Every structure is written in structure tokens, then in C-alpha cells.
Amino acid sequence: MADAYVPRAEHRFTFGLWTVGNVGRDPFGEPVRAPLSPVAAVHLLADVGAWGVNFHDNDLVPIDASPAERERIVREFRAALAATGLVVPMATTNLFSDPAFKDGAFTANDPRVRAYALQKTMHAIDLGVECGATTYVFWGGREGSESDATKNPAEAIKRFREAINFLCAYVRDQGYALRFALEPKPNEPRGDIFLATVGAALGFIATLDHPGMVGLNPEVAHETMAGLNVLHAVAQAWEAGKLFHIDLNDQVPGRYDQDLRFGSVNIKQAFLLVKFLEDVGYAGSRHFDAHAFRTEDAAGVREFARGCMRTYLILKERAAQFNADADIQALLAEIHADDGAMAPFQGAYTAARAAALKAHPFDRAALGARGLAYERLDQLTIDLLLGVR
Ligand code: GCO
Ligand code: MN
Ligand code: MN
Fold it and tell me: Which single residue of 22, 144, 293, 389 has CA 20 to 30 Å from 16?
């Protein structure tokens, strides 16, 4: 049984260089761990059983590297990939660390910063594609404001649109097989970030020149920080054909951005999310965008990475158990029962259908009086998660 929790390539588990490489710096404290070179991170991830590794341009190549240094770093990194069999499914741009981006990148008020952000992203896209990436993430951490006296939010959206349109055209021009995934977040590091939620990003995508190329990278912590239900966000993205990527981690609502190990806070929510991804057949990366507690050393970082994957696999097994549980399925069949009586009123609008529906007598009191057994279903779910079924 324990073997079922061993990660394999088919599980599509990925981590960012910045996740296992997190040195534990926070606003109050200095690093507690030594930096991990990209090559060392690749070996660590291969050791713990991950399938892939993702990176920001500057996780791999320092922002001030010379062309010769870039070439050497990429060569060594690709050699490590080849030696371990790890792949690079996703890449992204660091448009937040350098002081140049203190007022944002694509939405900065300074047109030079906006142009530099585009230039940096084109180079980063080239780098990602060179390493095999097929998904390119846009997390606009600095795309926001502390005071709305400083920036017109409608103008900011226009600037963001112009940048994404430009970069879509660049990708097409190069003939790259690359899709973009927008990663919404409500706040942190900016006071408020534009396109704060999955819903906001979905609305934005519909206004782009090439909407088919652009989808979502929802993150558990980000929707949770906004007090929203991440499963609802993921489901809406999926239903729209826009779930291009997912960032799995955990978060206590109402706190700073915690990036906790996947499934370590809200187990029921994590279970229902895994069940959703597995039930619908989501085929993309399961990317863990989290990091080890600041208390951990190198061994703790491995525990953290193993824990993310192990919890996912346990929850995946529980999802299969849920789907095979006779009591749960009988209850679900009852809940979703349909005797066909309403069939004449279902489907697209017709004048005749509307007239018939308007004339139909409903027993409103009976509809309201019926108990739905959701308490029992939820407790069966809890029993299952607690291992007593
Ligand atoms: C965060 C974000 C980032 C992004 C990463 C990839 O809260 O800091 O989740 O980790 O996912 O920059 O774009
Ligand atoms: Mn995050
Ligand atoms: Mn993220």
C-alpha cells in the first residue's frame, strides 16, 4: 500500500527552483539556509521523485550575467536535466525582485520600466523555450499599488493588455509552442494587485488579441488569501478550458502569504481539489509553489518536498476510495436523482417551453420541506479522510 505514495513521472509533480531553493528570508529575518545552485536543485528534485523543475529567468541566470556566463549556466543546467531525466514544463520572468520594478513591470507608470519589462520577458521566454518549457506563467506581484492616487487602475489594465498582446505576438512570430498562464493574487508584495482573482483574469483574457493562447495558473494560497474558495476558482477555469497550470500549496485565511506545504492546513479543501483534478482528468503539471518552514535545514527541505507529493498521492487514493464507496455513491445518487418530470422545461428557450413552465403548478412547500442529507455526506467524507472507512 505504501508504494502507492511513491511519486512517479506520470504524476506530473513539479517544483520551482525558488521553492526548494528558498533560503528562508522573511521581512524580519535573514536567510537560514545556504543557497542551492540550480544543478543541485535538479538533483535534489530528481532524488525525491519530482517529474519537473520550473524557474524564473534569474533563478537560473543572474540578472547581471554576461552572455558567456549565461551560456555556461544553461549548458550545465541542461546537462543536469539530461542526467536526471527531469523536464522543464514551465518558465516565468522575475519582474519583482529588482528595484527597477518597485512600481510594477507592465503596469509601471514609467514607460521605460514598461519597455524594459517587455525586453526582459522576451529574453526570459527565449530561455524558457530553450530549456523545453511549454507553459509560461505571468505572476504580476508588483503590478499594483499602495495608493490608488498614484495609478489609474483602468489604465493599468490597458497597459497589461498591451504587454500580453505584444508577447503573444512575439511567441507566434518565433514559432514557439508556448501557452501563457496568468497567476492572480490579491495582494503581497503590493498593497493591492491588479487582476486579483481567477475570475478577474478570466474576464481579462476574453479581451486579448489571442485569447486561445492565454489561460490560468490558479494558486491555492492566493484565492484563500482573498477569502475565496479555490476549488470554485479552479473549476471555473477548467470549465472555460483555461486551466493551463496550477500552483498547489496551503494557507491560513487572514494571514500573510504563507506558502505552506500542500494539504497541511485545510485537508478537506485539498482533498476536494485533488479529487476534482483527478476526476476531470487534468493532465497538466501539479506544481508545488511552496517552501519549507524557516526552521528547516537541507534535510527539512527534502521532507517538505516529499510531503507535498505524498499528501497529493494520499488524497488521490482517498478520491478513488470516495468514488468507490457504496454508501457515499448511494447517497450521491439520491442527491442527484432526477425522475424526468422536469424534462419538458429543460434545454434552450422556446416560447412554448416558457409558456408551459409559467403555467406549471409547483408544490413550493414540499420543495422546501425536503431534507437533503448533506450533513451525512459531509460526515462520510470526514470519516473517509480520517481513515475510519
Ligand atoms: C508568490 C507567487 C510566485 C509565483 C512565481 C511564478 O506568491 O510569490 O505565487 O511564487 O508563482 O513567481 O510566477
Ligand atoms: Mn504565491
Ligand atoms: Mn505561485
Answer: 144
Out of 94, 125, 188, 219, mutate this one to test ligand 1's pocket (max ligand atoms within 8 Å of CB): namely: 219
230-239 vs 267-280: helix crossing angle, rounded to 10: 10
Considering the chain, what is the average pLDDT of its residues? 98
Task: Report CA dihedral (248, 249, 250, 255) to the nearest 10 degrees.
Answer: -110
Nearest CA among 186, 192, 281, 190 for reference residue 233: 186
Catalytic residue check, 383:
no
Ligand 1 site residues (CB inside 6 A) read 92, 137, 139, 141, 183, 185, 219, 247, 257, 289
**Residue 56 appears among annotated catalytic residues:** yes
Return d(Cα 389, Cα 332) in angstroms, integer: 17
pTM, to two decimals: 0.97
145-179 pLDDT, tens digit per residue, is: 999 999 999 999 999 999 999 999 999 999 999 99
* Catalytic, out of 57, 59, 247, 259: 59
